[in-house]
Fold each of these.
Amino acid sequence: MNKKKIILNLVLLTISITTYAQTIWYNHPAHQWQEALPIGNGRIGGMVYGGVSTDEIQLNEETVWGGGPHSNVRAVPADTLAKVRRLIFEGKEYLAHNMVNANFMSGQNGMPFETVGSLIIKSEGAKFGVNGYRRSLDLSRAVATTSYNIDGVNYKREIFTSFADNVLIMRISADKPGKISFSAGYKSPLLHDVKLDGTQLVMNGKGADHEGIKGVIRVQTRMAIKNKGGKLTAKDNCLNLKAADEAIIYISMATNFVNYKDVSADEKSRCSSMLAAAMAKPFASAIKTHSKIFAQQYGRVNLNLIKADNAIPTDSLLYKVTSSRDDSPLNAQLAQTLFQYGRYMLICSSQPGGQAANLQGIWNESMKAPWDGKYTININTEMNYWPAQITNLQETEYPLLQLIKDLSETGKEAARKMYGARGYMAHHNTDIWRTTGMVDGATWGIWPHGAGWLSTHAFQRYLFNGDKSYLRSVYPQLKGAADFYLTAMVKDHRNNWLVIVPSISPEHGPKGKPAVTAGCTMDNQIVFDVLNDALTAARVLGEPQNYIDSLNNAIALLPPMQIGKYGQLQEWLSDSDDPKDQHRHISHAYGLFPSAQISPLRTPKLASAIKTTLLQRGDEATGWSIGWKINLWARLLDGNHAYKLVRSLMNVLPADSVQGRYPHGRMYPNLFDAHPPFQIDGNFGFTAGMAEMLLQSHDGAVQLLPAVPDVWKQGSVKGLCVRGGFVVDMTWSDNCLNQAKITSKLGGNLRIRSYTPLKCKGLKPAKGNNPNPLFYVPTIKTPIENGTAEALSVRKIYEYDLNTVAGKTYTLECCRAFMVLHHK
């Protein structure tokens, strides 16, 4: 290719970053919940079916849960705990397993997240032929729209859960006067009653009793209609509108929930006041303000892999992708949509002042969601928030930080009564009542790391924002999590290591043995991170030296990671891995992602060992597990294998009822992740994984395009965030970086890694460790090699340092000579 033409093409690609509309749409109504479209504002959620003669909007409010304030902690006598530990150390795991089940569980396994019910709209005239039907969700505006034509009349329904007014609003319009007639009412599985309050329709519901815990949640749902023309009447528990020009339906929902220990709020006053305030605003102003607030978060990041062909309905696109070649342009189109869809759903299900996104985000159609819709904190809740920092959605983490703070209070009882320890802890599940006891049985539940893992999110946030006042605010949670381990660990006298016991490697055990164990690899990795987070924070904040020393001493006694006889990373202290094990959990891969203990650059043998483990486990898994594996292969700098998992997740499952015919189906027609059933963490893991393929900052430096697959030959991304307080925009072509614009919010040293040589004023070859403390990577112990693992090989990497000033943007470009050679 001509040299001048190459350079011109690169320049054009660099300066031409086009934002493509992100809309998912269908040419038919939803026939099942997994086809409906999600809307939400963090507190209230809706699933829009878009029916013509009968439409349904299934409703959720984030604090409608079963049960009420309670503790599920069962005190464990010290001699019982000691006996369980002794049995495990003696290799008598079956006896220990049975003893745990008999002595650690209270009978309360967590309370369920519950639906409020549904708004049902029945329209007149829809019995005639329908033309031009379209049901869509504009991800950039958070507005769902249904449109169709009947007998020459064009109808439109626009619906959103307002980020400005905290209610659900739907406008129904027609392009001819007097053509809007319908009735609107409720259905609900809650214990409820419906009554008329003038021309408002009120439903009062009650959360269910569950596992002996009395339901105490009260929820009021209130509907009102503003109409232009026509006649509005209220009768037979319905609002009826005849021959109107336009109708705006308002739905307000509120509960008596204040926090996990207080349910004293007046739900009726809350509900009425929000409805009145919303109805006082014109619709045009309401939808504009809502979309503007939403876009302040959503619009920060733009990813372009290909110009979208929006002529294809989304379910048809998903079917086409399922059967397409890997290099089909449709794959890139769906991938970039799913990337933004994950960001959309995180914004819609987690906002400041509210509850953290649960196992289904905020969307659930039943009285008992799968796995109760609880917070499964042995990976799934953490996974929900993997995209938060890197994809520039920092606000969405506030509910998670509040969850951590709440557990730091309720978890003190579990630490003290069950393990005789200080600090706080939680097992593998919690709920809105912040329970921390063991649930579900030993195989799943005797895992004391839920609170510890969550606390690492609070520390990672500091590495992105560098705010010492923030670090001071979360230090009690960091210290409390560390204090639990400092006082709960015991010595494994075979090796003199400090270990947690009893525990499990979620959610299975070595071949032929029960799950209960001592000091499994994931345990040691989480403990290492929690202690190091507390140690780093204590140093930054000037905490007492004797506490710093206690953390250092404990870290020195943790077990090292081990490479087993098959060249794998051992999951347990003993070399007990089964190379044919294809369990969905790859718990010891925590050290590679989300942690930074394993690195292809710093620890190439451990990276090789976990790669062997991943190959042994295989690519096929449940939806959320595939989402995790995308991140793992990205951290191994293998973009093509990461992309293989991207493709695996984009396999259609039309419905749960046909799983047998679609054994590899991992995505419903509405793009919800299929475990199956629906778990939202797969969507969030997908978004985080794509971000990790494009940009990484965990390993002491910012690596640009670390794992871009061959099929994403060119593209651009704007607005991703990295540790150290930097925001990154990039363009690339022929799988090679063209340009990166990096904005420094905090100043300080920026260490850059790239597969291409770069140029920028002030850019120097990197030397020594990165002096920027926000890129600090703790040193791990040298692994024990019981088997052989060859060091993982990586591509040549160019590494630079750039001293930055806060508020300034720096443009890094690939050296032209390299690009010319590359294009040849």
Amino acid sequence: MKFTLADYQTDVVEETLNELGIALQRLRANSARKTAIGISAPTGAGKTVIAAAVLESLFFGTEDAAPRPDTTILWLTDDAELNEQSLKKIRTSSDRITATMLRTVEADFDQAEFNPGLIYFLNVQKLGTGATRHIKTGDNRRYSLWETIGNTIKQRGGDFIILVDEAHRGASDRGRPTILRRILDGATIDVPGNNGTARTIVNPPAPIVIGLSATPEKFETAMIDATGRSLVRIPADVQKVRASGLIKDRINVSYAVDDQPSDDTLIRQAVADLDRCDRQWDQWARATGASYRPSPLLVIQVQDMTTDAKIGEIVQTLADASEAFDHADSVAHAFGEHAPITTTTWFSGVEMPRIIQYIAPASISQSGDIRAVIFKQALTTGWDCPRAEVMVSLRTAREHTQIAQLIGRMVRNPLAKKIEEPEFDELNAVDLYLPHFNKDEVAQVVKSFMDAADVEVPVQINPKRMTRNPNVPESVWDAISALTREQKPVRRFSSNVNRLVRLGGLLDNAGFEHPGGSSYVQESRDVVVDTLASVYSQNRVALNTVAKSLLEVSFATASYDQYSGKETSNVSKSVATSQKNMRQLLEEAKRRLPDAAAAWYSTALVVAGELDWDEVIARTAAVARATEAREALEAQCGARVESWRRSTAGSVARLKPTQRQDFEAIFAPIGSALSSLLVMPEAISQKTEVINKVTGDIEALPLYAGHLYALPESQQFPDDFTSWEEDVLTAEQDSGTLLGWYRNPVGGSHALSVHYLDAQVSKNLYPDFLFFHDDGDGGVATDLVDPHNHSYADTAPKWAALAKYVRDHDGDFRRAAIVIKETSGALLAIQLSGQVDDSLEKKLAAATSREAIEQLFREVGGAY
């Protein structure tokens, strides 16, 4: 792949490849045992990238699996634009799947079978009864597409895999079989011919099916019902998806609270947000040294019967609100009717014609000149435009489900990562304006989104800007900014070789001068080659024996008496290994050794000039088969990463934040957390209203004094607490020494996070409260308090990790307490601060049930 996958993507790819191998074995043992593999990942999590990585590994092999270059993939959707979008994304994400391997099935496609080694894209409408150009034989067509599919299934078996994108659509109705169901389950098909004739063919069911979906339930139900087909579910870890930064932190939903017309006003406010977003991306790029910054987009959703004159009014409002819309191509539409819209707008007091051109949804993301797109219905499924960051919907409340679906298409971060700089935290949000909705109707939209969302994204209703509370002393801000936050690594490096090579590229690109006058990339490759050469030197005799055996293929020829059946002779023979098999040995070596180690080593052997090409391959393959090779590479490359870290630490620390983050992700040992100081912004965005889960109504949040951030007009902070969280806050406020407190958010660049492992999966926890008290000597005492519902399954690993964090940073806290509420209503606490060893951590890790946790609190805890 052209880039490093996020850890959850790697997990899904590895599990899918493993299940494909099992499915093939099952099919070979019994041709009736068919398999459906359902891959589910939230919207914005990169399902197409995951699929591309699976297909690349399938065609070209991995360290653990041989390549299957003769595999054929039929990629099915019910949307031609979605197919084209997926094809382009595979080309941009895979460095091994070439353009010649990707084929769109058009009307001129006419073959008995699909070819091996290719990925075909087909939208199922081309198999409908009206699609005669694809299914009708005669004239210039020999084979119906139905025949091509059936023949390929019959001839290729497990080497023919059908991949269904957005698999929840069209797969669930078994009472009235859809085109997709007939492909997957097999069917009797009437193939039309000339002069009204027809032939009947019987297509078998597809042996192996992969379904991609954000909402997999319908596809899974259909596959469970399919006779003789096993269903394997492979979901992406939602917590890992959120932690990856691919998904926005929050959605801001705003609406007018006055009973008066508000379309024009809120469109202007949306434009102001767009301009602010544009400025912030500029400032962020300058502050971080980023070479690219997104161009934010405004999405405007209108009623179905909206007139051209109304479109003109909207465009006029845009032009009046910002110079960004003076350009003729700055506004486009994506209506089902593709014709340009001709309207008029006023510019500098002169009425001028203006044409609003159509743009296909799949093309919006790359069209940087377009600043606003006007839609009618909900966007095309699979529409991908991460730069869409502000939305206005002029539709009515009865269409709240459609609006909720559109929100779900806009939650992807445009840089595929979270913005960590606190001063630019607003770039981690999507803004939605609903001029035609009252408070109750907004609740419907938010509830529809939250019910249907495949990944939880917090929704802030009528959010307001909270600034630093002027009543909080500056010493408190100094104290909180001295705390350490831990973050789980977003990227997972497969090996130290991968880390070293990536680090070499970063050092060269950042302009670090190599002390030897070469380059860090070249040194990383030299380390790899020298390490493998050392492995060969230390194991020369054994590896030469293996290499020699690979240069020839040994076999035995046995002769038998045709009457008695007795063996009369058995002669051992050997012949030189064919060039095709030699190439396969080289590919095997490339899979066994990480990164491009095998290619670099074989190239070095060629340059040395001591071996011919076949001997080069044989030695490379022999070294790759040695377990010592990978062990030595891991050790040597890991040591070199650490050496480079020490020698460049000072210079890396002076880099701009975005560059520094890339280095820090590599410097951290594989599987460990990244640490940094907590940086607090000048202002934050905070919800002011919330949906009552019982009544479904929107209610104003209660206000609290003393928070580090507050509404400028009242110096109060809106939030909602559980009863025991409220009890904790009340106890702290009643102490008489409280200088300020902080409600630690769940995620975001200004959240105190602690890394922990849950079933060997890296995650982040966010303690609830930080309290800052006068210590009596003119200083600030920092207290960390985490009231938590201890019936949750992840309580033990969370609190064990928090105990370790506090012990590692014990000087930062006067007091660190975990808190539960007994059935009697009393609060119990265990003090984590002051621990001299890991005994408490072990006790917390072992308390894996509610009862065990309560017993531990009775043993070592006390009243809060």
